[in-house]
Please model this.
Amino acid sequence: MRRQLDPKSGKPLSIHCPTRSHQRSVGQWILWLVVFFLLPLSSSAQVDAEAVTLMGRNALSVDDYLTAIRYFNQAIEAKPYLARPYYYRAYAKFTLEDYAGAEADCSKSIDLNPFLVDVYELRGLCRIHNEDYQGAVADYTRALREMPEEQGTRYNRALCQLQLKHYDEAEADLDYLLRRTPNFYRSYMVKAQIALERGDTLRGIALMDTVLTYNAAEGSAWSFKGRYALQKNELVQADSFLTRALQAMPTDHDLYVARAQARHGLGLFDLALEDYDRAIELIPRHFVAHYNRGLLRSFTGDYNQALEDFDFVLGVEPDNTLARYNRAQLRAQTGDYRGAAADYTVLIKAYPNFYYGYLSRAECRRKIGDVSGAVSDETVVARHELDVAFGRKKKTSTRKVRQRSDHAFENYAQLIEEDPDTVRNVFGTLYGKVQNQTVSDEFLPMYALAFRPVFAHGYHSVGYLAEMSRLQEADAPLRKFSLTAAADASAATDAEADLLRLRPLLEAIPDSHAALYLSSIYAAQYDYTAALHEVNRAVQADSASLAPRLQRASILMRSARAATLEAPEARANLALAAADLSLAAHLEPQNAYVVYNQGCLWAEQKLWQQALEAFDRALQLDPGLPEAYYNRALVHARLGHWAESKADFSRAGQLGLYKAYAQIKALKTKN
Model:
């Protein structure tokens, strides 16, 4: 599947999942086969390299990027002339935001095989993050030579051309897209940005209105209109438009700051403070939100909390003269005359002709009994024959918001905003903001056999099976074996050591038991092929046992996820997993873990009603199963059942699964 655009966020799904197979031309396959048969190395070494690469791809499918990189390193060390491991490693590095390393791996992959179109697309994204827009254009142009109708690639090239101020070239790409897909409304959004940069604001607004005819809930379009209304001081419209934008993009912190500015101007101070609070909740170190909230708090008489905001601002920018001036006034208002005098001293050193500063410091010095210092300051003012009226507030300019970089003294009481930045305006909506990390809404995995159960923040994911007790009694040296719904982050690394340590012990126990142990170790290493081989042996040896069936279902589902659920092999694996769980439910109909695993399987296939029924049943059997509450909450959230979702997350958190509380926080932005 080629890259598509997410209809909600506008982010292109531009990284092709390395676990998916990509179509290649017949000529490319012939070339690949010729290279393969000319390799002078043994077939066993080739199989080893391919196996390690597959394990790395499996690790990518569950977002374990560090382990994936370790596997790809092994494959590259064994076969440095293979292009794919470099590409997969580049993908992992890109996801970890190592854009320079990812670009280098892409370049190596292209050197080895210049016919892999996916690599050019990934390198294009790396170059965007590395601010090499011209290089990104070259990569997208190369990819479009092979796939001229690829929508996402052409769209990304248009964005790069916009950043380079190549407006005509960008418009040409966007017009090409609109001729073929007239309802691809995001093209109108970029055209609106181009119009804005060319100074044709009215055309930009008209284009955004066109976007809204295609998608009335498009947050970026409402944001555009809201910011324009704010710039024109049309505050009621700005408030309305930005509210619509936030309904679509509830975690965009800058939208809260913009709406707070509009509400401040409208005199809606409580609502403006709520917006600044929300922006800081999302980004605790948001400079503009702290500065503007400090101004608003000082205006409403909340001097102590305003001081906290300006303390933060000066911690970030110690040379910010206007922030220091505001803090000096606040310190004087709260009786901290020494602190106020110290701030005025810093300002006077920077601006020796700041005579109102001398007067203010003189007043503070008299308050603390420093009469000689006060007289000295007053003498400086008198010597220059300045009227005390200089200290009156000057009339501010008609502009109510200044740029962050504007430090003119007469603007000390004005709100601030970030300096304009095309990269932020355009690419920010495309790729999102790294600091806006949200809680993952992935379902917790099935209960399966493992050596490494989780102990984290009071949460202990360990289940009980009678069969497990018998296994542990029979195989005393292997008592760490357990049933768990979560793997330790170090499991893949530890598994190799486990395998070496346990090999001699496994020779002394029944073959079916050894196969179960091996399957859990191989699964932890993401070697699903070997894990399935071992668990199949266990099932064949004892087809009426519950543990092998649960284990195989878990491995089959993980393998299906790695291959993407649409693949025929994945569908077959999911069908076999369903059959295993059905038989397990027949063997032990009152076992909560079996029913929970069935719920996980239905949820993976987006069969929401079946998943709900399974989790309901699991919780009837075991009301203390936190994973079932957590996964049921996620299903409720998918269905828009916000109250039920919140209640289930609350119960999961109460039972020790503390990340459920982060989910509750995330829910507040969704309903």
